[in-house]
Amino acid sequence: MNRIAKLLKTNYPIVQGPMAGITLGEFASTVSEAGGLGVIASAGLSPEKLKEEIEKVKDRTDKPFAVNIPIYQPGSEKNLDTALKADVGIIYTSAGSPEKYTERVKESGAKVIHKVSRLKEGLKAEKAGVDAVVAMGFEAGGIIGRSGVTSFCLIPELADNLSIPVVAAGGIADERGFAAALILGAEGVEIGTRLLATRECPVPESVKQAILKATCDSTMVIERPVVMRALKPELSGDSENPALGGQVSGLIKEILTVEEVIRKIAEGLNKAKF
């Protein structure tokens, strides 16, 4: 068992990317049941609503799951309190300094993973005491870093310079991406856009169809006020609220179940062994 699967206590070292308003309790539990790590996105949730979503997961599965805490967001500390009081075993921090909450999370007995987009952030996260980092390449969908470093460079740079395990995020849609990430030095992967195009995902059908129609150059980077990658308006049909998605959209050609996606990507474990 590799370090990520051992740390997360999941069947596969596969993490579901947190997506605000989408990856809530029901969807996160579906991912966990399929053998990955389901993640509740707490962005935009009140502590009361977050508690409800945590309870939904616990009602549906006894498998491990995480809560994502975007550090910069107002209310992040209260949501962290809520997650820890509910005995959530894994806290996934992002968008801010890991020093702010890591010690507190570790003292509670929970594990903490932190998202980074450049080496400097990875070194800072390791020094703060996080258990693993998620390496988010610039090709990823949703909120992305400003560094512009892609997964192919970021993953080995982090793996070469950190002693804690690295989870690759950005540009992974199938077992080939997983195998490539492992060869580059990652010990697990995070998938977001690929999970949008699943039967269980609660996004509009129009978003799923836009992903299926996309090519790898069908996304754009916008700032409002954070840097995000989204599908171009001509695909999503909404210039005011474009659908978030990564460049990997161009590799997604069918809508599958969450379980089918997880199992297919997990095949990369064998491919990486040649």
Strand fraction: 15-25%
Sequence of strands across the biggest β-sheet: 1-9-8-6-5-4-3-2
Low-pLDDT sequence parts: none
Mean pLDDT: 87
> How many whole angstroms does the radius of gyration measure?
17 Å
Shape field? globular
> What structural class do you assign from the helix and strand content?
alpha/beta
The rounded distance between the terminal residues' Cα atoms is 18 Å
What is the CATH topology assignment? TIM Barrel
DSSP helix fraction = 25-40%
Order of helices and strands: HEHEHEHEHEHEEHEHEHHEEHHH
CATH domain class name:
Alpha Beta
Organism: Archaeoglobus fulgidus
Protein name: 2-nitropropane dioxygenase (Ncd2)
InterPro entries: Aldolase_TIM (IPR013785), NMO (IPR004136)
Keywords: Dioxygenase, Flavoprotein, FMN, Oxidoreductase
Report on this model:
It comes from Archaeoglobus fulgidus. InterPro entries: Aldolase_TIM, NMO. This is 2-nitropropane dioxygenase (Ncd2). 52% of the residues are buried. The longest helix has 14 residues, at 47-60. 39% of the residues lie in helices and 18% in strands. It is globular, with a radius of gyration of 17 Å. With 274 residues, it is α/β, with parallel strands linked by helices. Helix 2 (25-33) packs parallel to helix 3 (47-60) and helix 3 (47-60) packs parallel to helix 4. The chain has one domain (3-271): Alpha-Beta Barrel (TIM Barrel), CATH 3.20.20. An eight-stranded parallel beta sheet has the order 1-9-8-6-5-4-3-2. It contains 13 helices and eleven strands. The mean pLDDT is 87. It has helices spanning 3-8, 25-33, 47-60, 76-85, 102-107, 119-128, 151-161, 175-184, 193-196, 205-213, 233-236, 258-266, 268-271, and strands at 14-16, 38-41, 65-70, 90-94, 111-116, 132-136, 142-143, 166-169, 188-191, 219-223, 227-231.
